[in-house]
Amino acid sequence: MTLKVYLSGEIHTDWREQIVEGAAGLEVSFSSPVTDHAASDDCGVAILGAEPDKFWHDNKGAKVNAIRTRKGIEQADVVVVRFGEQYKQWNAAFDAGYAAALGKSLIILHGPDHAHALKEVDAAALAVAQEPRQVVQILRYVLTGALPG
Length: 149
What we know:
Rossmann fold
């Protein structure tokens, strides 16, 4: 069995790299949104033309980014959504809801400080992890049946 895993959420830490490296040797393929913050913010106006109003600037970028995000979530077997500590990731909450609506296996990743704020998101998940290594352990268990040693 090969799993397609979409890694959504905050882009300010190396959690994605930790999961990808930890899953080396497993039959897993990973995809994610564009994690270059400036490119993600400015893709709409860089491609489709400038907008004088910040709302429309952001709107263009959000729509262009949604092409990749929707495809990645729709094709995934498992969607991992990380909520970081530093910023509010409203896009991550949207991605989690979209994945849940599509019936995707959803793993939510956040620290204990977000447990109350994310209770509805957590309730839609099949697992709620606090560390990237736990996500790797879930993937390893799903693919091999092996528990952490």
